Amino acid sequence: MIKPKWTALLLACMLLLVAAGCGTDNQKSGSTPNPNDAGNSGETAEAPRDIQLMLDWSANTNHTGLYVAKELGYYEEEGLNVSIVQPGAGGTDTLVASGNVPFGISYQEGVTLARTQGLPLVSIAAVIQHNTSGFAAPVDRNIKTAADFEGKAYGGWGSPVEEAVMKSIMDIDGADVSKVNIVNIGDADYFTAVKRDIDFAWIFYAWTGIEAELRGEPLDMIYVKDYSDKLDYYTPVIVTNETLIQEDPELVKAFMRATAKGYEYAINHPEEAADLLIKAVPELDAELVLASQKWLSPRYQDDAPRWGEQKAEVWSGYAEWMFERGLLDQELDADSAFTNEFLPDTP
């Protein structure tokens, strides 16, 4: 799974859609308009409230807790009928920021860019506590460190952050990013691309790395977090928008109670959680889902006091890194970009 792109053009579209969405009636989200349908502490209304949750990408083990919460009835217990949907044409961040969809899956880098462009996107939980992404290459390319990127072909999705990250970690190794041949492969499959066009790409190990293991195609993985604490950012995150937080906090609390319960189940029962994901999305490779889930489940919460917890220094650190490299037009107000307010208390 290669990370999806976000660009300046997308942000321009986001600004237009947010402006258009500001006049819509009551968070045009595919939900019923009654803000009292989702009550406190699991109380359910007579008719469940219909809401949408939009993914960032095709379903995978980053999303297992969501499907667990749906399949085991945790959302229903909160009076919610949640539809988990694929990203829309305008992008998940766009639709959530504009209020057309109440909840979505995003990334810290996307939220950071959106916030500095005036978009009211807010992260309400970190799905995974530490960054599991990095640069991967088949072992026969002999890419063991960032310095080994020199003279190699990198396959990306055309975002300026890619070259900035490569430069950042290559500088540490005393290497020159201008010696990397950067190829835009869009959404091309990693395994096809490395056999045909490129030497390495940016992946999430929990999916593409585990798939490489199952294929018997070993790879060398360079995690970006190993080079800098500022690159150990949250990816992915669960997002909503400021208007929903202000106008219907009980809905956000109900949604997060059920979602946290789903991820806690996946942490403690990886095999059963994998089965639930496969049941909900049967087109997925069952062997890959199970292996990926076993690898990822302990990493959801990792060293945090509870699943979903976010730290201000993680948000400010990555934003500082982006600003220093010209990826942001202005500095981020980190405290407004995220909140732990809606996470349930630890038992």
From TrEMBL:
Start and end residues of each stretch annotated as Disordered: 25-44
Signal peptide: 1-19
SUPFAM superfamilies, A to Z: Periplasmic binding protein-like II
Keyword Signal: yes
GO biological processes: thiamine biosynthetic process
Entry's transmembrane regions: none
Domain SsuA/THI5-like: 60-273
Keywords: Signal
Entry-linked Gene3D superfamilies: Periplasmic binding protein-like II
Biased composition (Polar residues): 25-43
Protein name: ABC transporter substrate-binding protein
Natural source organism: Paenibacillus campinasensis
